[in-house]
Amino acid sequence: MNRRRTTLLSLTALLAAGLTAVPAGPAGADEVEQVRNGGFDAGTESWWTSGVNAGTDGGGLCADVPGGTANRWDAAVGQNDLTLARGESYRVSFRATGTPAGHSVRAVVGLQVAPYDAYHEVVPQLSVSGDTYTYTFASPVDTTQGQVAFQLGGAADPWRFCLDDVSLLGGVEPEKYEPDTGPRVRVNQVAYLPRGPKNATLVTEAVTPLPWRLEDAAGTVVARGRTVPRGVDPSSGQNVHTIDFGTHRRPGTGLTLVADGQTSRPFDIGTAAYERLRLDAAKFYYTQRSGTPIRDDLRPGYGRDAGHVGVAPNQGDTRVPCQPGVCDYALDVSGGWYDAGDHGKYVVNGGISVWQLLSTYERARHARTGRPEALGDGTLALPESGNGVPDILDEARWELDFLLRMQVPDGEPLAGMAHHKVHDEQWTGLPLLPADDPQKRELHPPTTAATLNLAATAAQAARLYRKYDPAFAAAALTAARKAWTAALAHPDVLASESDGVGGGAYADRNVADEFYWAAAELYLTTGAREFEDFVLASPLHTADPFGAIGFDWASTAVPARLDLATVPSRLPGRDRVRRSVRAGADRYLATLKAHPYGIPYAPEGQKYDWGSTHQILNNAVVLATAYDLTGNAAYRDGALQTMDYVLGRNALNLSYVTGYGEVAAHNQHSRWYARQLDPRLPAPPAGSLSGGPNSSVQDPLAQARLQGCTGQFCYIDDIQSWSTNELTVNWNAALTWMASFVADQR
Question: Which of 124, 246, 350, 509 is deepest in the core (most CB within 10 A)?
Fold first, then answer.
């Protein structure tokens, strides 16, 4: 999947700044202690500094930090050549003070050489609540080139940093992580629709039904009933009961459920929250834009300078060369969306994201409950608002223009194909605003998967923008046809799984589904016989694409099937296509009904996948589409009930959408929504979806705290947990689609 790594320093960090060796004395280390002279008993032996004046004072090391530095790594203290063992737990501890109080230090354990991976990092505020800091993490690698560093730069005024008792102890017991799950009654913390299903989950040791009551904000009981025991839920290991209060339809705010001596977090019954979420989920994309300043008047608190436009120290995307040996030209690949918490831009993930935003609008045009005006001109507060074009199309256009720029020019080898991605030469650390990224940018090789993503989304765009910008629609269709022809000529140019330095690899070893998807979109736009024949001949056209996990950037047969079922066309056998969608929805509905938490998601062995929240939502998209096709309320109710999980009815009693619910994820992995690391930066904007539980727990923080976790518990709301808590454009696309669907159900 799409692994991202954080790094210790950017390439302009310590090595570029130049290290200053501090005068040495005798060394000392034992079998498990990796830090030499951590108590500074031998003076400053084994420690280096960069950008500060440092020496011993009072038995520890003190550094005078200059003011006016731009980045944390502009001033630092550290030690190199530490040994780390893969899978071993380490306890890093130190005493530190700052004068005046309130300054913060970025303490990092990572790799001392390129690509400068960070294995653990924290940013405590000094001299505020004690001066002793202890953390536990697991090393993801074997290395003898480990580094402990304390990064001190970025302050406007000079200050003094003092350090003592630094330890990196190996072989310790992993830290036991006990999440605070709050009350044992788990509800959708945002809202239930008045005419929708209303279900909750009670975690209890009881095995017989228990009484429950629904109270309004004044404490008046407005409904009563008894729970239904469901036994042990395999996705959480909890013994649970379910509560169904769907017969209560009266709108209200601040309601609570009470059962087994527990009172749930508050929630509403109404539609207003989903009207807001429809817009907030789509507004997420504006602050992800590359190549343009983000206006603070449009997104208060999120204004920032344009990233990657060639202004120092930024390398910019207006003339990006290929990786060495890939090509001898440079392209203007400016614009587009930053894919996730890093500064990379990826055609395959951008493609599925554009498709789902465009599909959100296309569904609103064709579905019986659709309201396209709800995403019309002026709804998303964009710079383009007021131009007569629906805002959701304006936002998707920002990424589409980038995707078109990634196409290999005529006259070049592989002309018509699309470069797979563009990102930094090396990984950068957190936090880092896009405009401050100093890394060299590189185009990565063209791939068949990227080319077919371009063909599919450009073809879809051609039919949706024709009314608003005929010239752009025609250009998009020309690019789509060119990409299709190039993909047919080069059907097996695949991304390398090892191409993951500086950005995610996004390797996809099977592109049959991308061929099916691109042919479907080209057929729906043109009606041409060549694309119809390809669709009908594809083995995927009659295969069952609706797996347990859910579709994503690497599995695109479902997007093809959904569009073939819903976008008007004369495709032979279209009724069979529609029946296949209903069959997939029936399977997800059966899974949901059997699940004690009401989720249409039951991966084998309860092994939750990377980005499980968006996969769960995408299974709900299938249910919602089946409702649009049939009008069967069971599908509608299944889709609505799925939103309960994302918004709080889960084992962690947590909403995975920032700003929605009393307790919600708000520390998603990001280099610029990084308030957890730097109070000067914002938290993720309201409407940002966290990736959610991931049983593989690839990042060091998750490995230290979540080893042996069960399904839903494989999650931690921390900016360092990039494998469980990242945000991405494709995950928010699933939220945008579903939020719009729910808002349409009145």
Answer: 350
